[in-house]
Design a protein that fits this description.
The protein is mainly β and about 130 residues long. About 10% of the residues lie in helices and about 30% in strands. It is globular.
Length: about 130
Amino acid sequence: MLKSKIHRAVVTDADLNYEGSISIDPKLCEAADLVEFEKVDVYNCDNGNRFHTYVIWGKPGEICINGAAAHLAQPDKSECCRAHRALPHYHPWIIPQARPQDRARKEAPERGPNKIGDPRRGGLGG
């Protein structure tokens, strides 16, 4: 499940010679509930590149892509940084095959009590 997201952060630097990670302003990390060394997914909003890395504290105002991932991002470009959290006892909906005629339905089928947010499913609601 998505835990937090920094949407359209502007990259301030890209350092190919650093050993991996993304450096993020600690205050921004605190606001987004990101901890140092947490795994994150980074999505480049300008060219669609995506990569996994981990967070390290940066300087105030900094969003720096480090290491090999610096080839995938450039300063002044927009990135999304997302962190995910596993929920115990969460069971996602699995759609075995999505057919075009199924998408044309006007009403969604009744899901019953096993809906998102149902605490019996490990959801967040009650």
